[in-house]
């Protein structure tokens, strides 16, 4: 009988008597099928198979069980039967290892207390790493598997360990955010509101110097902001797909990394914004976008405070279907590294047509939100109605960029329209970022053109738009 043969082979394999007895008991349980078993129905339709390397389980359709229990027995990621190990975790200055009798695992996976761990050639438990197709998290436990040994896009970055956020800061209190219904929520499922500012183009002089630790601290402590959006232009001057112009890729990347660290140090959330604009159709630079998001999502996979905005403002003849195709390609690249982070997808007509999403959302729609942008002097009831329609249809919306002037970022402020938007934001607990943390001579700039400070702004340093936004964020 198959199971009998299995017990026999395992007995030969074991050395110590006590382990032998324990194993026999485990196998008895397997045979009696006492364990909860999610594949029970399927298991009934398959059979245990024996090969030189060990036991495996074949379903009636010819496929085999992997990374799951059958009859209470764990089949590992390659489909081989693997026993649960008894032993003791040990720690020394180099890290954790696992002692089982006088043996310890090296260069192999081991199943311990219901989880799979990988041990390196010296026997130390590996953390935060891909081992082939399998990822082990900061506790060393295997948490995710990608579809192929090669990632969809190979990240050209190294992964950073989990940061610590200041006690009581937003990121410490809320953790990794999630989307429930139309609402952005904390990891515990409590509705939250992100509110803050967008940087200006990160290499443009009127904004680049406002990316510093003190500037973010000012926005946090004086305004009450908990969010910074980092605008990485693609085709405009200094853009990621424009040979970076006056700087190198390393310098551009460094600006992004610095912005993330400044925000992280304060426990603020960060939106990494792939700021398409004159390129119109996000598919124009889809391969650069895939690499960009592979790099960043890999680097920050252990950060709870990062959100990804994958295409700022699609415009021109681009349709929602075009954007959806793009999103359905880019989202899996991010998910491979960071399965849970909130991802924000732009919408047609400079991120206005959020009402188009509900009937045709992206494929992997979990923790995905859709961008709506408004410039209050230009965008009024027509766009507000689009927002209402989208929310009513269950589409989660994030206002990742807005101002209260005209759509060109300049012109006069329309306070009446701004107040109508403010009411909508409040009524629906919407999250938002105001454009932009610069002192350029244009109405949307939050800092007065005459002000040359790069942090510590007082009210007299703020433009009219800046004052309005500060009031909105601070609630004062
Ligand atoms: C604008 C800047 C402006 C710059 C221009 C480049 O404010 O100084 O010259 O980009 O094209 C958006 C875009 C955002 C625009 C902003 C104002 O997302 O990049 O910034 N705007 O035009 N959508 C609507 C308005």
Low-confidence stretches: 1-15, 31-39
The percent range for helix content is: 25-40%
Contiguous helical run count: 13
Strand content: 15-25%
Major β-sheet profile:
8 strands, parallel, barrel
Bound molecules: ligand IDC
Q: Assembly type of the shown chains?
A: single chain
Shape: elongated
Radius of gyration: 27 Å
- Determine the structural class based on helices, strands and strand pairing: alpha/beta
Query: What's the end-to-end separation, in Å?
Result: 77 Å
The residue-averaged pLDDT reads 90
Kindly report the spatial arrangement of strands forming the biggest sheet.
Answer: 15-16-17-18-19-20-21-22
- What is the number of strand segments? 22
Summarize this structure briefly:
It is built from 13 helices and 22 strands. It has helices at residues 2-13, 17-32, 40-44, 170-174, 205-208, 213-223, 249-265, 286-299, 320-337, 348-351, 381-392, 415-427, 464-474; strands at 47-51, 54-58, 68-70, 73-75, 81-82, 88-92, 95-99, 108-112, 115-119, 129-131, 134-136, 142-145, 178-180, 183-185, 195-198, 227-233, 269-275, 306-309, 343-345, 368-375, 397-403, 432-434.
């Amino acid at each position: 009988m198959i199971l009998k043969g299995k017990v026999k082979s395992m007995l030969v394999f074991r050395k110590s008597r006590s382990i032998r007895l324990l194993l026999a008991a485990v196998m008895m349980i397997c045979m009696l099928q006492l364990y909860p078993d999610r594949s029970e129905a399927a298991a009934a339709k398959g059979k245990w198979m024996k090969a030189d390397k060990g036991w495996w389980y074949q379903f009636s359709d010819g496929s085999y069980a992997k990374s799951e229990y059958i009859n209470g027995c764990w089949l590992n990621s390659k489909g081989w039967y693997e026993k649960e190990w008894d032993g003791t975790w040990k720690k020394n200055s180099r890290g954790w290892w696992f002692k089982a009798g006088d043996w310890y695992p090296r260069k192999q996976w081991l199943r311990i207390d219901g989880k799979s761990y990988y041990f390196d050639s010296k026997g130390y438990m590996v953390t935060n790493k891909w081992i082939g197709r399998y990822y082990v998290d900061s506790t060393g436990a295997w948490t995710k598997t990608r579809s192929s040994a090669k990632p969809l896009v190979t990240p050209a970055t190294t992964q950073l360990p989990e940061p610590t956020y200041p006690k009581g800061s937003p990121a410490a209190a809320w953790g990794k955010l999630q989307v429930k219904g139309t609402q952005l929520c904390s990891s515990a499922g409590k509705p939250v509101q992100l509110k803050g500012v967008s940087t200006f183009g990160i290499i443009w002089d009127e904004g680049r110097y406002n990316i510093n630790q003190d500037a973010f601290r000012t926005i946090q402590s004086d305004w009450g902001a908990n969010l910074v959006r980092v605008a990485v232009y693609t085709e405009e001057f200094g853009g990621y797909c424009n040979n970076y112009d006056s700087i190198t890729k390393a310098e551009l990347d460094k600006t992004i990394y610095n912005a993330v660290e400044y925000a992280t140090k304060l426990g603020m959330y960060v939106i990494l914004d792939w700021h398409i604009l004159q390129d119109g159709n996000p598919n124009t630079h889809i391969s650069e976008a895939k690499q960009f998001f592979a790099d960043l999502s890999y680097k920050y996979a252990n950060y709870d405070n990062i959100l990804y905005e994958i295409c700022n403002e699609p415009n021109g003849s681009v349709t929602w279907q075009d954007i959806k195709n793009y999103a359905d390609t880019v989202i899996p690249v991010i998910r491979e590294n960071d399965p849970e982070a909130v991802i924000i997808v732009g919408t047609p007509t400079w991120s206005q047509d959020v009402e188009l999403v509900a009937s045709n959302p992206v494929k992997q729609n979990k923790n995905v939100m859709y961008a709506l942008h408004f410039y209050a002097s230009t965008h009024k009831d027509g766009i507000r109605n689009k927002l209402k329609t989208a929310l009513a249809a269950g589409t989660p919306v994030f206002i990742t960029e807005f101002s209260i002037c005209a759509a060109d970022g300049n012109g006069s402020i329309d306070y009446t329209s701004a107040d109508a938007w403010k009411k909508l934001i409040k009524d629906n607990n919407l999250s938002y970022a105001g454009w932009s943390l610069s002192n350029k001579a244009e109405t949307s700039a939050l800092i007065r053109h005459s002000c040359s400070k790069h942090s510590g702004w007082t009210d007299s340093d703020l433009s009219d738009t800046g004052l309005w936004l500060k009031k909105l964020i601070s609630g004062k």
